């Protein structure tokens, strides 16, 4: 069985696709399979380097110059989603549809309000002309506002005339950004390499135009204007180098850099780090309360008073008193040594804070080994990808700093040997004034780094994943390193990646009923994609099944397909969030909302059953020629509560039925329940509803074929209630009697097919993954 990591090697066609649609590949991979990826040995080209899977960037300034009395220009390598300035510039399209690249990254980090406000602007004023700039609030980003600048697009086979026109428009765009910053009285603005990505504008010329426009603006700016710092910020080395070059050539040598930024290794952290395969351990000097990782770890006494320890007090001061109130509400009375209590981050930049209860009675191993491992396990279970630890036990407990550094580092290394999930970043954050502790950690990580490089420390014998250092082929060949939460997800992601990144088709059909939820803006984007990739995109919907057909050149079809897949994943996520919100709202209205607790950072979880627990199901499925790979029990308190309420309404005993689904819709069903769009049958003979069967043999053939590597069955409790024979023209159950408002609860074929028209009448109990047989047709 494969573990949670593998490599997909790229052919020339695949590299060309990824150069144009890297961000869309990341988005689709995560949306369809809950997988992340890193791309190796592939130059950025026109691709966006923004993705959730890459390691955090340490902010680095490479050029700095006072270009006038009241204006400064600097060049940075940093992530714009975490860069701290008054305004961040987004490279937007004219529809302000933030579905890829930097725009998507800013929306994911800043929250849905950014896209919502952008759509409001389009609704009120129409498309944003090229060269113009509009602003929205920044949501959860550390800046005050976002300036959405629409830069020019040039075709890959651009002419001199087209490039000259685009150059003028890019100059206009930068000028309008600076004018806007001036008008809003901003002190700092961060500008990326606008138009140089998917808009195909040459990077070298882009850098020259940006720098020259900033220089011209500074010369025409009023002397009494407020001091403005313009930062040219990018997260990829080629863009940073070109901005630095353009500044040096246009403005001359820069002013002396701040001491902390005089590091001549631009792609590395100024502190040591350890590459541990699926985990990377970073050492960082800073204030832990300022961390932006998913999780921050804290230690607290048994009385749960956050105002006592230095770290917990700093977190409390920044998070606010709500954190103290929450931890007290979680645990009444005195907490026991070793307990880990999770609270919201509140006003901190993290999602959650894990508070380790530590009063010194458990000894140093409890906090330095047991609790640290438990925090890692919990973060992984909660779906997080980054976590920050302080130097545990060096404060009130007074543990020796060298012992702490050694134990914490080696505990993470030991844990990493058996971890094969998505890429995880771990930070040890040391307070800047604690030089002794910092020195101890630097020494320990440097020691282990040398051991890893010399091969003295080997990975677990159970870890069969290849490493980039295993062979010259891996070190040089363009490839994708895929990280998955399970071996099944890994196999699905790998198979899909090979299909989409080996362009051999001039016509591609994507089946996905989420097209029914496409907005007007989404349809406008489809028209934009037609022009961008010179393809023909056609939507279809027939007999309950919909999707998109793409015709064109091989590489163009694959590029457009990735864009469409990413768009549909976003539509699916938006729909799921809307359903979750409505579901919780309905429970609140009924007075049931307070009974629902989140499981980790989700509303549901899947619990893997062992062979003994699932042996009865294995026997049942085996009788129908189905070989079970794994059985997962679905726990979703919100869905369960709504189902119970429907049981009371219908007053009937539920039936145990089955539905066969595509891998992409397994998690959405676990999350928000059954929907008509998720598993339409081959033919809707009995109505346009949600289909189930009691016959597992029939389930193998009733739903359409797909390209999944496994067959996925949902075992559900379904309230069929009063039913009647169905017909293809039904969109709701037929009336039960003379009153048209009183209807049957479901329809049937009279034997083994049951159709409901309201997803709340079914609760998904088990997700059952089966092997596909070569001589059988599966859903």
Automatic annotation (TrEMBL):
<dbReference type="GO" id="GO:0044389">
    <property type="term" value="F:ubiquitin-like protein ligase binding"/>
</dbReference>
<dbReference type="GO" id="GO:0005634">
    <property type="term" value="C:nucleus"/>
</dbReference>
<protein>
    <recommendedName>
        <fullName>Poly [ADP-ribose] polymerase</fullName>
        <ecNumber>2.4.2.-</ecNumber>
    </recommendedName>
</protein>
<dbReference type="InterPro" id="IPR012317">
    <property type="entry name" value="Poly(ADP-ribose)pol_cat_dom"/>
</dbReference>
<dbReference type="GO" id="GO:0010629">
    <property type="term" value="P:negative regulation of gene expression"/>
</dbReference>
<dbReference type="InterPro" id="IPR043472">
    <property type="entry name" value="Macro_dom-like"/>
</dbReference>
<keyword id="KW-0808">Transferase</keyword>
<feature type="domain" description="Macro">
    <location>
        <begin position="60"/>
        <end position="251"/>
    </location>
</feature>
<dbReference type="Pfam" id="PF01661">
    <property type="entry name" value="Macro"/>
</dbReference>
<dbReference type="GO" id="GO:0003950">
    <property type="term" value="F:NAD+ poly-ADP-ribosyltransferase activity"/>
</dbReference>
<feature type="compositionally biased region" description="Polar residues">
    <location>
        <begin position="452"/>
        <end position="465"/>
    </location>
</feature>
<keyword id="KW-0520">NAD</keyword>
<keyword id="KW-0328">Glycosyltransferase</keyword>
<dbReference type="GO" id="GO:0005737">
    <property type="term" value="C:cytoplasm"/>
</dbReference>
<dbReference type="GO" id="GO:0003714">
    <property type="term" value="F:transcription corepressor activity"/>
</dbReference>
<dbReference type="GO" id="GO:1990404">
    <property type="term" value="F:NAD+-protein mono-ADP-ribosyltransferase activity"/>
</dbReference>
<dbReference type="InterPro" id="IPR002589">
    <property type="entry name" value="Macro_dom"/>
</dbReference>
<feature type="domain" description="Macro">
    <location>
        <begin position="268"/>
        <end position="449"/>
    </location>
</feature>
<dbReference type="GO" id="GO:0070212">
    <property type="term" value="P:protein poly-ADP-ribosylation"/>
</dbReference>
<feature type="region of interest" description="Disordered">
    <location>
        <begin position="452"/>
        <end position="473"/>
    </location>
</feature>
<dbReference type="Pfam" id="PF00644">
    <property type="entry name" value="PARP"/>
</dbReference>
<comment type="similarity">
    <text>Belongs to the ARTD/PARP family.</text>
</comment>
<dbReference type="InterPro" id="IPR052056">
    <property type="entry name" value="Mono-ARTD/PARP"/>
</dbReference>
<keyword id="KW-0539">Nucleus</keyword>
<feature type="domain" description="PARP catalytic">
    <location>
        <begin position="581"/>
        <end position="779"/>
    </location>
</feature>
<dbReference type="GO" id="GO:0060335">
    <property type="term" value="P:positive regulation of type II interferon-mediated signaling pathway"/>
</dbReference>
């Amino acid at each position: 069985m494969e573990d949670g990591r593998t490599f997909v090697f790229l052919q020339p066609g695949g590299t060309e696709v990824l150069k144009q649609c890297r961000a869309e590949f990341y988005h689709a991979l995560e949306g369809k399979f809950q997988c992340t990826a890193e791309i190796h040995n592939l130059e950025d080209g026109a691709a966006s380097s923004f993705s959730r899977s890459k390691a955090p960037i340490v902010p680095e300034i490479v050029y700095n110059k006072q270009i006038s009395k009241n204006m400064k220009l600097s060049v940075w390598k940093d992530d714009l989603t975490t860069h701290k300035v008054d305004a961040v510039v987004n490279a937007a399209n004219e529809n302000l549809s933030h579905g890829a690249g930097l725009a998507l990254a800013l929306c994911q980090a800043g929250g849905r309000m950014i896209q919502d406000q952008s759509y409001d602007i389009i609704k009120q004023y129409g498309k944003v002309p090229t060269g113009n700039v509009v602003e929205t609030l920044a949501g959860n980003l550390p800046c005050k506002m976002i300036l959405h600048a629409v830069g020019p697009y040039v075709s890959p086979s651009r002419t001199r005339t087209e490039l000259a026109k685009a150059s003028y428009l890019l100059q206009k765009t930068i000028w309008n950004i600076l004018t806007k910053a001036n008008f809003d009285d901003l002190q700092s603005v961060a500008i990326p390499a606008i138009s140089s990505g998917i808009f195909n504008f040459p990077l070298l010329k882009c850098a020259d135009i940006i720098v020259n426009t900033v220089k011209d603006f500074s010369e025409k700016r009023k002397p009494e204007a407020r001091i403005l710092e313009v930062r040219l910020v990018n997260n990829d080395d080629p863009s940073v180098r070109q901005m630095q070059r353009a500044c040096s050539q246009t403005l001359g040598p820069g002013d002396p850099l701040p001491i902390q930024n005089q590091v001549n290794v631009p792609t590395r952290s100024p502190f040591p780090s350890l590459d541990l395969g699926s985990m990377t351990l970073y050492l960082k000097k800073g204030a832990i309360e300022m961390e932006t990782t998913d999780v921050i770890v804290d230690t607290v006494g048994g009385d749960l008073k956050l105002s006592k320890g230095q770290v917990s007090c700093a977190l409390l001061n920044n998070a606010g008193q709500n954190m103290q109130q929450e931890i007290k509400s979680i645990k009444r009375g005195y907490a026991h040594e070793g307990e880990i209590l999770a609270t919201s981050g509140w006003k901190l930049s993290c999602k959650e804070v894990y508070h380790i209860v530590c009063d010194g009675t458990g000894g140093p191993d409890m906090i330095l080994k047991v609790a640290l491992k438990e925090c890692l396990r919990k973060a992984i279970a909660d779906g997080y990808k980054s976590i920050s630890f302080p130097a545990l036990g060096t404060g009130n407990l007074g543990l020796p700093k060298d012992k702490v550094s050694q134990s914490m580092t080696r505990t993470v290394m030991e844990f990493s040997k058996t971890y094969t999930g998505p890429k995880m970043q771990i930070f040890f954050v040391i307070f800047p004034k604690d030089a002794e502790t910092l020195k101890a950690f630097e020494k320990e990580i440097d020691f282990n780094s040398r051991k890893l490089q010399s091969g003295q420390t080997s990975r677990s014998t159970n870890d069969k994943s290849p490493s980039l250092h295993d062979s010259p082929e891996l070190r040089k060949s363009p490839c994708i390193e895929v990280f998955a939460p399970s071996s099944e997800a890994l196999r699905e992601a790998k198979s899909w990646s090979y299909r989409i990144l080996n362009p051999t088709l001039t016509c591609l059909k994507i089946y996905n009923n989420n097209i029914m939820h496409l907005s007007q803006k989404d349809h406008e984007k489809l028209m934009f994609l037609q022009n961008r990739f010179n393809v023909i995109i056609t939507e279809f919907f027939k007999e309950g099944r919909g999707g998109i057909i793409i015709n064109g050149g091989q590489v163009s079809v694959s590029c457009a397909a990735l864009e469409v897949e990413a768009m549909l994943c976003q539509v699916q996520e938006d729909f799921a969030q809307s359903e979750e919100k409505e579901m919780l709202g309905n429970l609140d209205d009924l007075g049931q909302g307070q009974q629902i607790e989140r499981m980790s950072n989700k509303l549901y979880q899947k619990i893997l059953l062992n062979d003994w627990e699932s042996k009865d199901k294995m026997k049942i499925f085996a009788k129908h020629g189905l070989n079970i790979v794994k059985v997962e029990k679905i726990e979703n308190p919100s869905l369960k509560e709504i189902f119970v309420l429907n049981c009371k309404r219908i007053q009937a005993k539920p039936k145990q039925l089955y539905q066969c689904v595509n891998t992409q819709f397994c998690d959405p069903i676990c999350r928000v329940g059954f929907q008509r769009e998720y598993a339409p049958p081959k033919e809707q003979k009995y109505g346009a509803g949600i289909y189930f069967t009691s016959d597992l043999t029939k389930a193998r053939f009733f739903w359409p074929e797909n390209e999944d590597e496994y067959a996925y069955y949902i075992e559900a409790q379904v309230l069929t209630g009063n039913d009647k024979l169905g017909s293809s023209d039904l969109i709701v159950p037929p009336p039960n009697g003379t009153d048209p408002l009183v209807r049957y609860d479901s329809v049937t074929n009279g034997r083994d097919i049951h159709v409901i028209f309201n997803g709340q009448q079914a609760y998904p109990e088990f997700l059952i993954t089966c092997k596909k047989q070569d001589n059988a047709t599966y859903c």
